[in-house]
Specification:
The complex is a heterodimer of chains A (201) and B (378).
Chain A lengths: L3 H27 L6 E2 L3 E2 L6 E3 L8 E5 L3 E11 L7 E10 L7 E7 L4 E4 L24 E2 L9 E2 L13 E10 L11 E11 L1
Antiparallel strand pairs in A: 1-2, 3-5, 5-11, 6-10, 6-12, 7-8, 7-9, 7-11
Chain B lengths: L1 H15 L2 E13 L9 E5 L5 E2 L1 E5 L8 E7 L4 E8 L3 E4 L5 E2 L1 E11 L2 E5 L3 E7 L8 E6 L2 E5 L8 E8 L5 E2 L10 E4 L10 E8 L12 E3 L7 E7 L6 E2 L4 E6 L15 E5 L6 E4 L12 E4 L9 E4 L1 E5 L4 E5 L6 E2 L8 E4 L27 E3 L3
Parallel strand pairs in B: 19-30
Antiparallel strand pairs in B: 2-4, 3-8, 4-7, 5-6, 5-9, 9-10, 9-11, 12-13, 13-16, 14-15, 14-17, 17-18, 19-21, 20-28, 21-27, 22-23, 22-25, 23-24, 24-29, 26-27
Classes of the chains: A mainly beta (201), B mainly beta (378).
Chain lengths: 201, 378
């Protein structure tokens, strides 16, 4: 009985060490800082890493928007790790409609996959694993600026198969439109939001 | 040992489910604010004289706008000349040249992409001969009077006031009387309650009167100083006037709170015979010339003897209600008049033995066309 306690303590220490190492590794990879040097020749591929060419910055900053006009901002996401990434999801949060919300409209379009993400195209055949039919140039319709649930954890499909392959890159447009039916009181008003991308490998 | 192995497997599972996130904050869309166009510069053709055959407009652009709405005001009403003009100049050539007019123009920035958005407007005016008054307004209605105000018209030195009652043709009420004055008080307007009273101004430069009428200012429903209601209230025995009974008169506007004054001002006179048969309020005798307020003439007698019924009287409700109270216990027998008669307002101008007439706050007398609602009986 007295000999067992030190043994348990030993295994617990080993276990804690392992868990700490695993989590630290994950966190560093997530932040894109985990890169180990391989000898003197260069970098060793990082298993899991994503790049966002506008990381921490806005994709869309529009001033002096006029009714009846539209525009876009583009963000490029890429799998720069060596492993495939199973899931990429986009969410909208921190929405501030600023009183102009009803007249302001939004779309999110994957220009690489030629597929609308917001709104999601309808899947005509309800087959298991079926994907929406690609929309070659544009989305089917304009959507509210505040996407709510429709722009919460929206799946960004891979170009082929179920995972974003190594070096797979998606240029995603965030499109806006100020409706021509906008009322006179919309003048000078401003609306904003944040985009959040989540990846699971 | 077993627990440790399980935990290691779980940890390995966590390691397999690699997750990461990245954000793009501060995405924003801000709508433009349309700024004003420059004040329009106006030029006329010909360059001088009482008539303009055309007016040229030009203005500096609103930076955000690509369209302009152009409006013209000839007599207090804006008319759209062009709803969506693409340049910053315009020539207004009316079918009939403007003679004796002050013409205003208004420029409103707009967008070709929106029907709804407009920027702040800018206005400018030009005069062709003597200008007209197009901002005539009713500034006050006091008792039986209507006060008018307006701003100066270009080239005008005199303003003649014209009036129309209930749709009848305009007639001058102050022709030539208003040299350079920009207000007029129309005293004791001869309109009855509910009639419309309209006014306009014709300008004059001392030699020539403008041929153009200015805007029309309207009192939609004239409300003179008049008796609105008579309520006779029996609080005691029927068919007699007893202590506690009262008569309440309500007026359309506040009296001066002073009249009626005089020794008989708190009496109601009951008359049994002749053309003055009826009740006379604030009176020592039976006639409109003796009553401070007036009286109701009945077709039949309501008592056996003509006499003054003494009581107390007071103003209340901001001097719009006059209440007479019988305070003497002696009962005076009365019978129902079988219908009220016709009210005659006081015609007194001075009072000694009998009271002076009640007056409105500005001294106006009760209107001669008063037709009060009469209710109740002793």
């Amino acid at each position: 009985m007295t000999e067992q306690r030190p043994r348990i303590m030993y295994w617990m220490s080993v276990l804690l060490g392992a868990i700490t190492t695993i989590f630290a590794t994950n966190a560093m990879a997530a932040n894109g800082v985990f890169e180990r040097m391989s000898g003197a020749s260069g970098r060793k591929p990082v298993p899991n890493k994503i790049s966002n060419n506008r990381s921490g910055k806005a994709v869309l900053v529009v001033k002096n928007a006029v009714p009846g006009t539209n525009g876009r901002g583009r963000v490029v996401l890429a799998n720069v790790g060596s492993n495939p990434i199973r899931t990429v999801r986009i969410s909208q949060d921190q929405v501030r409609s600023g009183g102009i919300g009803p007249a302001l409209q939004l779309q999110v379009y994957d220009t690489t996959a030629k597929r609308c993400l917001y709104p999601r195209p309808k899947i005509t055949k309800q087959k298991r694993g079926a994907k929406p039919r690609p929309e070659l140039t544009t989305c089917a319709k304009w959507m509210p600026f505040n996407g709510g649930r429709a722009l919460k954890s929206v799946h960004v499909p891979a170009l082929k198969g179920t995972s974003w392959k190594r070096k797979e890159k998606h240029a995603i447009d965030v499109r806006w439109r100020l409706d021509s039916a906008s009322t006179n009181t919309d003048q000078g008003k401003s609306a904003s939001f944040r985009l959040v991308w989540r990846f699971i490998a | 040992m077993t627990i440790a192995v399980v935990l290691v497997v779980l940890a390995a599972g966590v390691a397999l489910a690699w997750t990461s996130s990245t954000t793009n904050p501060g995405n924003s869309v801000t709508a433009v604010t349309l700024s004003t166009a420059g004040t329009p510069l106006l030029g006329r053709t010909p360059a001088a004289g009482i008539t303009c055959t055309s007016v040229n407009l030009s203005w500096t652009a609103s930076p955000e706008a690509d369209r302009y709405m152009i409006e013209r005001d000839q007599s207090g009403v804006w008319t759209t000349l062009v709803a969506s003009h693409t340049t910053t100049s315009y020539t207004d050539t009316p079918g009939t040249p403007f003679t004796h007019y002050t013409i205003k123009y208004r420029i409103t920035p707009k967008l070709s992409t929106s029907m709804n958005w407009v920027g702040p407007s800018t206005t400018a005016a030009i005069t062709c001969g003597i200008g007209d008054v197009d901002d005539l307004a009713i500034s006050a209605e006091t008792c039986n009077d209507v006060t008018l105000t307006w701003t100066a018209a270009a080239g005008a030195t005199r303003y003649d006031v014209w009036r129309s009652i209930n749709g009848v043709a305009f007639t001058a009420v102050a022709a030539g009387a208003n040299l350079g004055v920009l207000t007029y008080n129309d005293v004791n307007v001869p309109a009855t309650a509910g009639q419309s009273v309209r006014y306009l101004i014709r300008t004059d430069d001392g030699m020539v009167q403008s041929t153009v009428d200015g805007n029309i200012a309207t009192v939609a429903s004239f409300n003179p100083f008049r008796l609105l209601s008579v309520s006779v209230n029996n609080t005691g025995a029927a068919n007699s006037v007893n202590a506690g009974d009262n008569v309440v008169l309500t007026f359309s506007k506040a009296s001066n709170g002073v009249a009626p004054a005089g020794t008989n001002s708190t009496n109601i006179f009951v008359q049994t015979t002749g053309g003055s048969r009826g009740l006379w309020f604030a009176s020592g005798a039976a006639s409109a010339a003796n009553a401070a307020i007036g009286g109701d003439r009945f077709a039949a007698n309501i008592t056996g003897t003509s006499q003054a019924m003494a009581g107390t009287a007071a103003w209340s409700n901001g001097n719009t209600t006059w209440t007479w109270n019988r305070v003497i216990a002696t009962a005076i027998p009365l019978s129902n008049p079988a219908g009220w008669g016709t009210f005659s307002p006081s015609t007194r101008t001075t009072g000694a033995t009998n009271p002076s007439p009640i007056k409105c706050s500005n001294g106006s007398l009760l209107t001669a066309t008063s037709a009060p609602i009469e209710t109740g009986w002793f």
